Amino acid sequence: MTTILVPYHQDEPLPPDTIPLREPTVTVRPDLPEGALWPRLNALHAAVADAVAAHDQPTVLSGDCLVTLGVLAGLQRAGIDAAVIWFDAHGDVHTLESSTSGYLGGMALRLVLGAHADLAAEPLGLRPLPEGRAVLVDARDLDPAEADFLAGARVRRVGVGDLADLPDGPLLLHIDVDVIDAAELPGLLFPVPNGPSTDAVLTAARQVAATGRVAATHLSLPWHPPTENDGPIRARLISALLGA
């Protein structure tokens, strides 16, 4: 199994052991330019795209959802036109105009769909994903602007138990671990209650994998640095997701 570790949250390196992964195949740590955020993010995501394009069916682990831009761009560089299955407790479909917090992670899927292409997609050479090629799984914490967008968009919304009808062709499986009920996973940056269990998410991930069409997997791990108590929980979760 090819594992690509991207130990960053946005453009900031993560403290050691935030992502407890033993012996990744590749660790992406490019020299980022000084200065503004978007050029730094684009340099990071370009390095991710290079690593993804160089490996067959990789699993990428990172500290936020924005890295999906690099994963999808890498697949496209390798000639793979993948749809996206997006597990997340949040919609991630804000824009710079609609977001009240300005947090870019809350825009990740919308950027993949082509929002602010001059800032995100175009510098990577990324072809934005058509809305009908995106499936949003168990997004239950939506701001009003996100709900309005999704009500008129072709993005399909499903629960973890309703993945029978997936898009045709290759798939990019994106799992933000905050899709799991917050009571089961301590230390999340943006915990959301009333979600599926870890076992339910693993079962759904196996269902997607069983199609034989997963070209890459991205595990987004947006959590605080580990404590003595939650470090082992995270290590077990990563191991289980890699096995799924």
TrEMBL record:
Superkingdom as given in the UniProt entry: Bacteria
A Pfam family that the UniProt record links to this protein: Arginase
CDD domains xrefs: Arginase-like_1
Gene Ontology terms for molecular function: arginase activity; manganese ion binding
InterPro entries the record matches: Ureohydrolase, Ureohydrolase_dom_sf
Protein name: Arginase
Gene Ontology cellular-component annotations: cytosol
Keywords, comma-separated and alphabetical: Hydrolase, Manganese, Metal-binding
Species of origin: Actinokineospora iranica
Family, as annotated: Belongs to the arginase family.
